[in-house]
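Ticket reopened. Same input as before:
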Amino acid sequence: MIDLTTLTIVKAHDALLKGEYSAVELAESYLAEIEKKNTELNAYLEVFDDVREQAKVADVLIKAGKATMMTGIPIALKDNILVKGKRVSASSKILTGYVAPYEGMAIAKLRDAGVVLLGRTNMDEFAMGSSTETSAFGPTRNPFDTSRVPGGSSGGAATAVGAGLALAALGTDTGGSVRQPAAFCGVVGYKPTYGTISRNGIIAMGSSLDIIGPITKTVEDNEILFDAIAGRDPLDSTSIDLPASSFELRASSLSVGVPRNFLDMRGIDADVLANFNESIKKLQSLGYTIKDISLPTIPYSLAVYYIIMPAELSTNLSRFDGVKYGFHKDADSLLHDYMETRAEGFGREAHRRLLLGAYVLSSGYYDAYYRKAISVRTLIEHEFAEAFKNVDLIATPTTPTPAFKIGEKTKDPLSMYLADIFTVPANIGAIPALSIPSGFVEREGKSLPLGIQLMAGYGQDHLLLDAGKAFKG
Amino acid sequence: MITTEEIEKLAMLARIALSPEEKERMRGEVDSILEYVATIQKVSATAGTRTPSIVAQVNVMREDGSPHESGIYTEALVSSAPRREGNYIKVKKIL
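Engineering reply: fixed in the latest deploy. New output:
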């Protein structure tokens, strides 16, 4: 038996090379675990039917001495990442029956490396949500307390890694959709600098904000997965190569800024704040200098986000009309075909955001909402750039509360949106951010994980990953 | 306060058929979200309109030409459509 609870990519790679077990045996251990736990957790929507065949290919590579770090590593994918020939639905009814006709660079690179793709995991519909409750296929349950949400929108992916149903996973992060569920499920979630991983082959939500993000048990694993998929892609004109770190950094010369004005806002749980202050002490003991900083505009990020994201989303989702893909509902005219298809194919959260997007882009409101939001976004980018002249990293809690109950926030959309208050600024500022497990709080006799979020300046991902490794190590 | 007529106009723009109950619920929800996002009016963003974004905004061009042999993706793409006739996607008459 392979002990999956403490397994990491680094350990599995080592064992595969030494021949302690084969990629097929490793994949079968995960399939057995999924079989045991997925009915209750609802992390996977589909387990691929060719997992063993993929693992056999990996074993051939290993035997031939051609293995890389990701060869034979079983990973889960969020249901908005295309794999050629596999179904993909963004957890929406509107993509019923859709099979991906292509895949992007991230998946192509992983397949070349002989990774084992276990299946596709549940998410909020089109990544719209912070709890995985807006999925058309029912909520995913938090592995630490099944009456609670796993966070979202990559909730199935975070649950899969947290519950030992995958060694690692890929999610996508538009406003916190990798980091927030990672915090709720006790795992590491990373949103790299915008553009460092190609968006080709993911189902778009907010194109100027979206990025793929790895979810893993350790920061070291996270960096391995990121390195395997990052890089400029001619098919995504916003993609970039991350400049390599040119010198060794030491914690003793680095500083962490704490934006107290942002943390003092209402709605933050007292236990979360206490845990965060402990984490700051830990960073201090590791040699980081702690500085209080002020970020006056950054608290407006969430409001900016709920203008820019619906605007981009309503544009991206206009292609789902019952003509080109998936679900079609017939009515008396082409216009009513569109309207009935979109009424029944999309869920309530999608409807809400599509209306908002139409509103902020309407003539008469465009200047007051969309244009203003773009201006404030630029201010936020510059405020971050200024802040990172004085500090190397900025720390906040990843979430204002631990995982909440299923159903607790579904009736009040704004309270759900506030779950992303600390994660959204990094997307607005295009900067990298990392959520690392920082301890537990007790709620109704259950231990619930919390996360600390570290942010770094644009393109300074190596600073972030080094600090993350030091924090966990 | 956003009106039912405005919600109907937005639903038409977004191509979504909403029932009367859904319109009423959307009215309340959209209203509270708009009230929240309107807080950005408090930010003096005149500086922001003058400074360019840090994230690269250079347009990436390529030479015109045939990127691939004509027709090689037709079957894969047309087969995604819920209704087809031969190599065409089928829709209702609009005239």
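The domain at 1-473 of chain A is CATH 3.90.1300.10 (Amidase signature (AS) enzymes). The CA atoms of residues 408 and 416 of chain A lie 9 Å apart. Please confirm and we'll close it.
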